[in-house]
Write a structure and sequence with these properties.
Blueprint (H helix, E strand, L loop, with lengths): L3 H19 L6 E6 L3 H6 L2 H7 L5 E7 L2 H4 L6 H13 L7 E7 L3 H9 L4 E6 L24 E4 L3 H16 L4
Parallel strand pairs: 3-4, 4-5
Antiparallel strand pairs: 1-2, 1-3
Helix pairs in contact: 1-7
């Protein structure tokens, strides 16, 4: 499931998830790609447009879980990637961007995605215990908010789930 482009970028997110696992962190990886949005580009100031002209089709933000490493609740893969992408763009709005994340976002990350005005989120594995992009609630598609995010679910779901299963098996076996 998913386009060739979705699979390509989800593989990059999986690579980052494995970096998190190597640190003993829950293996979640995330990349943000600027895909372009003519409607958004009309509203950006000229300096932002100048920075973005060479970014179309490129990864502008990367992140992986670092909560234990940073000793910070906010160090989720998605939040890190959003911060980096915003710095590249020079704006808090991430219109014209697609996020690829290996595990369905939690409530904090889903809220940040909506607040960033992300166009689209591509999700690997769903999270029935804490997912807020459809498993428990769908923060990304709530009509009550001023922005809704298009979602694609299940891209490389088996691989994304396997990375998490392997990690938690190692945790149970006290390999960390």
């Amino acid at each position: 499931m998913g386009s060739a482009e979705d699979i390509k970028y989800m593989k990059e997110a999986l690579r980052l998830a494995k970096k998190a696992a190597a640190l003993g962190e829950v293996p979640i990886g995330c990349v943000i790609v600027y895909t372009g949005n003519p409607n958004a580009e009309r509203s950006w100031d000229p300096q932002v447009l100048e920075r973005m002209k060479d970014c179309r089709g490129k990864v502008i933000g990367r992140g992986y879980n670092r909560r234990k490493t940073d000793k910070c609740t906010l160090s989720h893969a998605e939040i890190t990637a959003i911060k980096k992408a915003s710095k590249v763009i020079g704006d808090w709005r991430l219109e014209g961007c697609t996020m690829y994340v290996t595990l369905e976002p939690c409530q904090m990350c889903a809220g940040a995605i909506v607040q960033a005005r992300m166009d689209r989120v591509v999700i690997g594995a769903m999270n029935p215990k804490a997912g807020c992009a459809g498993s428990i609630i769908n923060v990304l598609r709530m009509k009550e908010f001023n922005h809704m995010v298009e979602t694609e679910k299940g891209v490389l779901a088996e691989e994304c789930s396997q990375v998490l299963s392997d990690f938690f098996r190692r945790v149970r076996n006290k390999e960390f």
